[in-house]
Amino acid sequence: MSSPKLDIFKMLNAIDSKDYDFYDNLTDDERKGFSAYIGLKWGASVSGGDNILQHYYLASMNSYVNVNLFDLNKHHKLQWLLLVASSPNFGVHRHEWIYPKKKPTSKSKNDIKSQLMKIYPSYKEDDIELLASMVTKKDLKKFVKDCGDE
Q: Each residue of 105-120: pLDDT tens digit?
């Protein structure tokens, strides 16, 4: 038995046009397929148009929806209202999926940890692990360059 589906493009059009009643008008099967997380990931990115509109969608979705999305997981109607509230109502736009950030490979993570151990020899291994999880290779390279230790 396949899981119920909700047409994501129908949902995005309803977000763009601020259709607050969209969730109420869904069938029971469509409601089972509703996912505010999917709406957030698709809705936060707008292709085309100017940078101001793209920035608005990203910042608005982040501040309205992303903040407490999982705290409201039993309140789908409220999640829907937050998705709709994030739209500026400037017509229908083409949205794209935002891919999750890739985790560094273990080799790259080991390189980062070894560099951090050279920079901070007095830090405990747990502290180095924590720093390595927060710092990218690019950030570390910039830090080393800024310190003049190339």
A: 566 677 888 888 888 8
